[in-house]
## 1
Amino acid sequence: MHRAMFTSLRQGDEKPKVTRELLLRVLAYAKPYWSHIGGMLLTILAGSALSVVTPLIFRQLIDNILPSKDLNKLVMFAFALLLVPLLNGGISVIQRKLNATVGEGVIYDLRVALFVRLQRMSLRFFTNTKVGELMSRLNNDVVGAQNAISNTIVGIVTNLIEGAAILIVMLSLEWRLTLGSVFVLPLFYLIARKLGDRLRVIAREAMDINAQMNAHMNETLNIGGALLVKLFGRATEEGDRFRQRAGGVRDMGIQRAVIGSSFFVMIGLVSAVGTALVYGFGGWLVIQDKFTVGTIVAFGSYLGTLYGALQGLAGAPVEFSTSMVSFERVFEIIDLPHDIEEKKDAFVLKDAKGELAFENIDFKYSINENILLSAVKRYGKMEDVGAVFSGGKKTEKTEDEGSRTKLGQPSSVLGLDSPEPAQTSQARDVALEGVSFTAKPGQLIALVGPSGAGKTTLTYLIPRLYDPTSGIIRIDGHDLRDVTLDSLAAAIGMVTQETHLFHDSIRTNLTYAKMDATQAEIESAARAANIHDFVAGLPDGYDTIVGERGYRLSGGEKQRVALARVILKNPRILVLDEATSSLDSESESLIQDALKRVMAGRTSIVIAHRLSTILAADLILVMDRGKIVERGTHEELLATGGLYSQLYETQFRGERA
């Protein structure tokens, strides 16, 4: 229901619309801090009262105390001039503390709500969403949203109260002079609108160019991008490309600074016109003995404060609308429906036996726009960054195109890396079609087939990274959709072909599977994965930092750490992409030995790349174009002379020899 509030931005309006629903929701985030906000309101009132007092003191000094030469009153009023800023400073400190408490509290609440929500989003969401966009919402937009509550709203209230208080005092002193001072207000509005529009255009262009520069840095400064730049010798070209984009950011910054400075100069000139009118007309009244010198001095002091408040209010709508856009972008993620829903009465799977059954499963990589981030734009129609290097605009991709390309699934690693035996294209709309099989507890099921046949897609359905388009997957007789996500994750261990390790110690990466694991348990798992001796030989042992994505370790070492992590988890069902083709013979031998230990006694679904795994399998499933085209044991499948026989001849000839 809340997604309706974003329609105004999607339609490309230059100015976002602040709706009642949005305001009420924003205020809901301020609700836990009402006492602090109330305290801020009191400090604002006290500060506004003090701002009125000082000019009145000057008026009294000039008109009464100095002419009468009253020394006692002079000392008292001089002390008052010292006391007012002292009190004002104390009030400012208290107000700042209350303001910071509210602002940082809102940032904390929004960030936690966003992060928790994102943790439950499906893999489909992450394969269709830029990491930079998520970081932007967790950082920039959260801070922008906090700014609405702790700065923008507070500034508006302060300026309103202060401006109203000063106007009342000025009217009580001399109504004709007050009308003369507010005569220039239409000029304030015209200048603010004209230069504000220009600033908004520049701000939009600056955000676009800055986004392109950030995207370029993200692409080239991560370890994969940096490696590619070095391998192709493109450091000079990338330096030139970055220099061009950074120069655009610099030029926009200069334009923004010049126009911003011009804005304040124009406002200053308008203020000078008002001041000239006040002193000119006020001076004439003084000459006519209808006005005192102290009153005109007080008016001059009030005038600067009044124009400052009006200047703040003139820019308030733009600032407030900008902050509301940040709230909209934050709320959009919070309101996204979960693609993988957990039922309210979901069953907690305990003591899983490991029986797995696929019943007529169909699956398509369709894109549901309702679970993806919409093109919500920042203030001023900021466009999404398209092609990072070519500078081209991004093109729309249809749902079917997204299905055929299997967003997020590298087709080159979905199966065997060698040429397909039948040279049959695997491009299709439906990733899986009519898949049915049963894995009994403790069985080893081997998946074989050409690259892109759907093997990895099948394994992704087991831990509910995706839900099937139709059909039912059961674990121990329970529909996966009836089981709680946490208990399902506890029962399944998965090792993907592309192993991911956190930039942390080996110990931390291992205990991610079991947070309370003892040193003995860690070492036992590492020994089972044939990695303990290697780790023990490192200077820092298990406290060795593996680097970004584990790049300080070799491919075989990373895979063995990943296997040790799964062993430490001790799942009943093991899902494994047995990718060993890129490893040296020693690492491959160590991993094969570790795999035997990992799979022992567990239900194992393995994308098999090795003949030894296929020969040990209780059931071999041969996949082609998303279907199981053959099934049986090694001997049974060879006897049929079908696709498996071709795979056997082409893929495993060297290994067989």
## 2
Amino acid sequence: MKQDLDLILEGNVITMVNQKPRARAIGIKDGRIAVVGSLNEVKKREGNSTKFIDQKDKTILPGFIDTHMHPVFTGRVKLGVDLSNVKSLDETIEKIKDRVKITPPGKWILCYRFNRMLIKEKRFPTIKELDAISTRHPINIQHYDLHFSIVNSMAYKLFNISIGLEGVHKNLKGEPTGLIEDPLSADIMRKVEDLSDENDRLKAVIAATQEALKVGITTLHMKEDPHNVKLIIKNKDHIHIRIKPLILLHPMRLENLDEIISSDILRDETCIAIISDGSIEARTGAFFEPYTDDLTTLGMLYYSDEELRHFLEKAHRAGFQISVHCEGDRSIEQVLSMYEKVLKKYPRDDHRHRIEHFEIPTVEQIKRAAKVGITLAMQPMFIPVAEGSNLEIYRKFLGEERTRRSNPFRSILNEGILVAGGSDSPVTLMNPLAGIQACLTHPNKDQRITLNEAIRLYTINGAKIGFEEKEKGTIEEGKLADFVLLSEDPYRVSPEKIRDINIEMTIIEGKVVYGREK
């Protein structure tokens, strides 16, 4: 005898299942989907204690999955000084001054999401300008792409930065400007993290998850250092969202892989992440041709071929899924070549090894990624945030030909590659609907994809890239009862209006974890 349902959810159900794309109701039992169909079909399982949520004028989708974000930094943006909306250096300085006024001397002023390309002056503040705000507070500004830091003199001393280190920017007199670039930027990020204790970091993670729930996300792929992943796993009962850890090993610390292999807590988490190049705006994304606005640089590769091959081989043979950050075509080439060597020597069916970003590939590289089964975790919101609404920012750095290759979603999907969507938060804000819209309104019209394909990036494809497609990503019997309720049907609004659709509810395991205030 079938058990009575705990909950019936009525609405315009988009299942993301090809054989049965639409339904009117969902029946939920013990946190899982028990039945999907017409309201009459589902109500046959109704009992005396069955609850009913009537959302017949709303649209129900599988819960969104963000496959690349940094929860500690994302939460810190909420707790620190958010510079994402400043339009000038004067406005930047005023926001920092406001925080200084309410902060005791000696305490850190941590600022996030500054974007030099979006302010009038198109430059970073200098160490002198920050010192004019305060010499009694250490000030650190983190650029939105996480590949630059800007510090005042007090922070410079407390971070123990040596003028001779690679990545310390100097003026013509050889004096520090306060700007810290790759490869030293990763060290500054770690030093900022060391300023907080576990309780502060947990608060940041919880703040980040609360933001995710507001935009319909039910699963987060959290990319963090090993000690933060341990913290998240130990406290997962206090983090009210589903978690998929990506264990990030920072550049030049690949030896930490041995600690993960032997760790009781981390060994069962199946994805190890590393970074192979920098960012395009920092001119450290690695390319075969020089940057258009700086012919002296090709960007940088963080590892030699041998170092990278050795790491990939060791992680692969240990059974891990691997994730590698690649932005430029030279970095993509190196990583693809090393993946090919490792997989030829040690074949493994369905490895689903990842490349993160894959921003400027060549046509040949796309075909090779498909051939060896590489999956891609891409961030559609990089287009409006980092590249420009008409790709004008990247055109400045890369020129016309490379810019035309930016985020080639259509070409990638045509090769049958598994692509999942994410935000790289706090680089861009978590917002799957905005990411879906970016896929449909790509400035390069040849690379636009369909609405169904774009939604799949944040639902079933997000589940597949994490080996979780049997549990989530579609609305069908047996899967977890994770849903997002939208105010409108995305198939009935223009592409330019999709990001304006309201998130009405976010449901995890059949329980409402977020509801929009009316």
